[in-house]
């Protein structure tokens, strides 16, 4: 199946650290190859929060447009939290793909994410619970970072950004 691959990191620092773009790309390539899918385009959002809507995520917008235009038959990403960190955004994107007749594949969530089925409400509930926990994790990260900034505030300390130290030579 022809797919658009979507990768995302929230901060520029994540581009090279942790589960950055290269790691996501490698996992998507390997999975696509083993499942006989063909990646037709790579759609990337660098340094953009997963809580943002499609209107601020150019890469995700391009992937959705390709599905609607019939250039690809679906989207693949590393995990639901790479797609969205806000449950309402996650559900909106999934609904848009399915409305266009597309397929959704998430490596970390067991492969294809199937459309809601009235005879299987548990499928929908489990997916949505995962979205709630992705949103919770984002909130906890923000809370820890804000606490750390507050604790590091004070004279001569810099919290985020670049230091404004000046060197006055002799």
Put the structure in a nutshell.
By secondary structure, the chain is an alpha/beta fold. 44% of the residues lie in helices and 16% in strands.
Overall helicity: 40-55%
Please trace the helix and strand order, writing H or E for each element: EHEHEHHEEH
Our measurement of the CA-to-CA distance between the termini, rounded to an integer number of angstroms, reads: 68 Å
Which sequence of strands runs across the widest sheet?
2-1-3-4-5
User: If you consult CATH, what is the topology?
Assistant: Rossmann fold
The tally of domains stands at: 1
Unreliable sequence segments: 163-167
CATH class, named: Alpha Beta
- Report mean pLDDT, rounded to a whole number: 85
Largest sheet: 5 strands, mixed
Shape: globular
Structure description:
Helices cover 44% and strands 16% of the residues. The protein has 170 residues and is α/β, with parallel strands linked by helices. The chain has one domain: Rossmann fold. Strands 2-1-3-4-5 form a 5-stranded mixed sheet, sandwiched between helices. Strand 4 and strand 5 form a beta hairpin. It is globular, with a radius of gyration of 19 Å. About 3% of the residues have low confidence.
């Amino acid at each position: 199946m022809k797919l658009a691959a979507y990768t995302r990191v929230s901060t520029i620092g994540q581009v090279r650290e942790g589960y950055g773009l290269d790691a996501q790309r490698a996992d998507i390539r390997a999975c696509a190859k083993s499942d006989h899918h063909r990646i037709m385009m790579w759609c990337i959002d660098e340094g953009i929060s997963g809580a943002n809507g499609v209107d601020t995520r150019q890469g995700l917008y391009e992937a959705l447009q390709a599905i609607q235009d019939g250039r690809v038959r679906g989207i693949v990403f590393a995990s639901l939290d790479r797609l969205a960190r806000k449950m309402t955004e996650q559900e909106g994107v999934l609904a848009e793909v399915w409305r266009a007749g597309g397929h959704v594949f998430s490596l970390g969530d067991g492969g294809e994410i199937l459309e809601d089925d009235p005879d299987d409400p548990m499928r929908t509930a489990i997916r949505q619970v995962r979205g709630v926990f992705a949103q919770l994790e984002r909130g906890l990260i923000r809370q820890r970072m804000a606490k750390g900034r507050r604790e590091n505030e004070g004279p001569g300390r810099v919290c985020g950004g670049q230091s404004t130290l000046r060197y006055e030579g002799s």
